[in-house]
Amino acid sequence: MGSETESLAGVRGHRQELERFFGEELGYRLEASQPGLARLAKVPGPGHQPRGLTRGTKRFTARRYALVCLVLAAAETAGERTTANRLFQEVAARAGAIEGFAFSTETATDRRAFIQAVRAVQGMGVLELAEGEEERFARAEEGADALYRVDRDRLALIPTTSLPPSLYSSPDEMPADRYPETEEGRLRRRRHRVTQALVEEPVVYLEDLEQDEIDYLNSQRPRLERLLREKVGLTLEVRAEGWVTVDEDQELSDISWPEYSTHHAAALRICDELRRRRLAGAGSVWPEDEVAGFVAELADEYEGYWRQDAQTPAGTALLTAEAIDLLEALRLVERQQDGIAARHGAGRFASTAALDPPAPAVQEEL
Known about the structure:
globular, alpha+beta, 13% strand, Arc Repressor Mutant, subunit A, three-stranded antiparallel sheet
């Protein structure tokens, strides 16, 4: 807590400088007017693939996102404190007003999904569990409830639109691009999109950018390298197929990879195998059932080191999905109808020690 408080104090101390940097270079809006709170309203850049919220290792579905929004709406009508039961009843009432959205207070799965949505809102800092047991409430045990503190200041900072969402009658009316139709607006938009991509994306490919954005990046490369290094702490790598900004201290990335966890190790070996297949002239698409078979062989190879369920059919299937999800989030592979295909960035993480490329040597990709 002390470190977070010191960081927020630093943000407020350099507020004007930070507001200017984020606004001019990235098109982001920094809100740090209240003590102890800071909100950076970011805008997705080109090539962005949202990872979103997860339940364990499974991504939230559209329905679960809707429940998160309903919990936030219920919290907005609450006071400084509320209970799980009050939120639950309010969410059920709001869900009932949405056509085609089935939600019942009598259904165990809906009750469990509600608690997962509440925990997601806790992760945003809007709700804080004061007392009680959420698990008992999720199981509908008699008399079970939970008390929450509501951080109304954080709740007010959740929306990132230029105007309050309540002023729009539908999401379609909300403006996607706020740049004026002028030469200055076009240049500002181009600068923001390039910098957003470099800062936010694990890999930026040529096809992510428009031609004038590629030209801008190439012509402004020294300035961008200096900006990223001095202001953000990232090192820019330029490759034939795109760009990578490296977080060498691993302090900024929300995904630190590779690590020693089972699905991280499996993902790294999948990268190796994708490269071996390419050098051997195999097809560009690797069927997912064959990937699962490869992961099953890895589970036998690493028996005693990987998690215990990795050698079961269900465990292998889950591990394969987790590894592919990770590689997809890192923009190293892409899912296709018949399987997965390596993207150029996968070559950066593939090992060379165990591979014997055929002659003539094949030039490595990104």
